Task: structure prediction
Amino acid sequence: MKKLLVIAILAAICVPMIFAQGGQEAKQTLTVYAGLLEEHAALVCQEFEKKTGIDTNFVRMSGGEILARIRAEKENPQASIWYGGGSLTFIEADKEGLLHHYVSPTAAVIPDQFKDPNGAWTGIYSGYLGFVADQEFLTEKGMEMPKVWDDLLDPRLKGEIVFAHPASSSTAYNVLTTILQLKGEAAGWDYLVKLNDNVRQYTKSGSAGGRMIQLHEVGLTIGYLHDAIAFKREGYDHMVFTAPADGTGYEIGAVAIIKGAKELDAAKKFIDWCLTPECQELGKTVAALQFLTNPNAIPPDEVVQLKGTKLIKQDDIWAGNNRSAFLEKFNMLTRTTPPTT
Result:
C-alpha cells in the first residue's frame, strides 16, 4: 500500500513536469559581444533572430574592451559570441584559453588565410589600413596628402593626428604591428615614439578619428579605408584618403564562440549564419564596406577602388602572441594609458 502511495505521489509531481517540458520547449537566447559597427551588429542579430527564432541581443564594444570583459568573466561568461573586430585580439584570447573551438561546416569555403585551422575563430571580412585627412586642413597648411608612413612625422602635423590607442582598439593594434613588421622592431619602435610627438589624442575606438575629420576637429587620422569611404559617402566631401605606398597592414574581422558559453547550441548556429553570403552581404546595406571572406559573397562596389593596395607580409600569429608585451612597451615609450571614455 505504501509503495502504491509513493508511486502515486511521484506521478503527480513528474507528469505535469514532463508535460510542461514536452508541451512548451524553453525559448533559446543568445548574447553577443560585437566589435563592429553598431548598425551592422544590430541588423545581423535581427536577421538571425528572424531566421532561427532565437532571442538575440548584443553589446557593442571595441576589440580591446571585449577581450578585457571576457577575461573578467572567465569563470562565469555573460555572452556566448564575440562578433567582429580584428583577429589579432582573437589570437591573444585563444592563447589564454578564452575561446571555444568550433569548425563550422560553412567554414569549408572560407580561404585558409581567413580562419584559424583549429576553429578558434573564423574571418567574416577584411580591410586595409590607410590615412584619412581633411582636405581643407591640408590646403591651409600647403601640404599634399601623406603618401608613405614617414610623411606622418612632418612637423606641420604636430598635434593634428588622432587615432585609437592600441590597447583599446584592434584597429590601432594593427597599426602598431604594421609599423613593427614594415620597419623592423628597433626602427619601428623609434618611429612610433616620433609619431607620438605629432599625436593630439588617442581615442578609444578605431573609427572615432574619422568622425573628428568629418567635423573638421583634426587634420589626419589612421584607420581602415572602408570606414573612410563610408564616412565620406555621408556627404563629407572634404575627406580624402589613401593607402601608404610603402605598404600597409590589414585586418581580418572575426567571429568566435566564448569558452564556457551557456548558449552553445545557439552560438554554433550564429557562427554558421555569419559565414554565409546572405549574412556577409548585409554589411553593405548599413555602410559596412569591407571585403568579404566567403568567395561567393558579393563585396560592396565602393571597395573595388582599393584593389591593388600594397600589403605587407603580415604575421598575425606573431602579432597576436606578442600583444600584451607590445602594449606594455607602447605604454612605456609613449607614456600613455588606454582611454576609458
Remarks:
- The domain at 127-249+319-334 is CATH 3.40.190.10 (D-Maltodextrin-Binding Protein; domain 2).
- The longest strand covers residues 122-134.
